[in-house]
Design goal:
Blueprint lengths: L2 E10 L2 E10 L8 E9 L2 H8 L15 E9 L9 E5 L14 E4 L5 E2 L6 H24 L8 E3 L5 H12 L4 E5 L5 H7 L3 E4 L15 E6 L3 H9 L1 E9 L13 H5 L3 E4 L7 H14 L2 H6 L1 E5 L3 H9 L6 E5 L2
Parallel strand pairs: 8-9, 8-11, 9-10, 11-12, 12-13, 14-15
Antiparallel strand pairs: 1-2, 3-4, 3-6, 3-15, 4-5, 5-7
Helix pairs in contact: 1-9, 2-3, 2-7
């Protein structure tokens, strides 16, 4: 019986714990495609999973990791054959179905998409679910009709994974990008990604007025709560905000004023269950507009043995950009 290494989250009387272990192929969950995983990444949700800080994992034991890239080893699904390079984001992987922090994964073929031409597996995971979510957000703004000539775009949580990729994508697509961060020391990093202006997140983190001064035409927000309320209150007439995260909280202490007095639209971004067409659109946007050198500048690489520490660090706001996990 073949064995492989994996991070395993287990639940006991004292709560959950995560450790790097050796597990058997026979333990893999049901699916019609088995993938040899080469790379995964550390997203905020992964940090919650490995630390147990929130009930992200809903089935035990669980191999966390909400995304991965790898090569198909075996398949009974008509779309996939051995040797195909694939990527997976979401679908409950790492939460209810064993995920990317193992050297093998067995999943449903419908959850997979092909590796974007021109991207290596490591680069795809440098983008990861955070970057894919950023691309979904940018695509949603463009589909809504937002264009750079409407005015600047704000990115909150700009030094994080979603924010870093959003800044780079939007700048490449011609936007004037305002980056909001609580880490002033990251100003040069953000300007290197394409940000034109840096603002302190403290400007947006306190309770919002119903309407503030109109400052940006569009925004990508990964923070939620008071930050999102302030972002909405300062969005220009007819603008749009893509909401894709809740780092500050899942509440929205706002009013209807931005919506009914300025015609502002709030666009919800879901990366977990997004249909295949939306996923392919987002990955095409990444392939078109993400500078590989900028991607490298925002990326750190670790092994499976570094995942637990990286998970703690991302929850503490101590991670810049993207962390790639070299699984095998």
């Amino acid at each position: 019986m073949a064995q492989f290494r994996a991070i395993v989250v287990e639940k006991g009387d004292q709560g959950t714990s995560a450790a790097l272990k050796t597990v058997d192929d026979a333990d893999l969950m049901d699916g019609d495609v088995t993938v040899r995983v080469s790379h995964s990444t550390v997203n905020y949700k992964d940090g919650l999973a490995v630390t147990g800080k929130a009930p992200v994992v809903r089935r035990f034991p669980m191999v966390p990791g909400i995304d991965f890239a790898g090569v198909v080893e075996s398949s009974t699904h008509p779309d996939w054959k051995p040797g195909d390079a694939v990527v997976l984001n979401g679908w409950g992987v790492g939460e209810t179905h064993w995920g990317g922090y193992g050297e093998r994964a067995r999943v449903k073929g419908d959850w997979l998409i092909p590796l974007q031409p021109g991207l290596s597996p490591a680069q795809a995971m440098a983008v990861g679910t955070a970057g894919y979510t950023a691309a979904l957000s940018v695509a949603a703004l463009e589909r809504f009709g937002m264009t750079p000539d409407r005015g600047p775009v704000l990115v909150t949580g700009a030094a994080g994974g979603v924010g870093s990729v959003a800044v780079a994508l939007l700048a490449k697509r011609g936007w004037t990008v305002i980056a909001s961060t609580g880490r002033p020391g990251e100003a040069d990093y953000l300007k290197g990604l394409g940000a034109s202006e840096i603002i302190d997140r403290a400007e947006l983190s306190n309770p919002a007025r119903p309407l503030g001064k109109e400052r940006w035409a569009a925004a990508v927000d990964s923070v939620g709560s008071h930050t999102l309320a302030n972002v909405l209150s300062m969005t220009r007439y007819g603008g749009a905000v893509a909401a894709c995260g809740l780092a500050q909280g899942m509440d929205l202490p706002s009013s209807v004023a931005p919506f009914i007095l300025r015609g502002v639209s709030l666009l919800g971004i879901d990366s977990v269950m997004a249909p295949k067409a939306r996923r392919l659109e987002a990955w095409r946007l990444v392939g078109e507009s993400l500078d590989k050198d900028k991607l490298a500048a925002m990326t750190t690489t670790i092994g499976l043995d570094g995942v637990l520490e990286a998970g703690k660090a991302i929850l503490e706001g101590a991670v810049r950009g993207r962390t790639v996990v070299e699984v095998k």
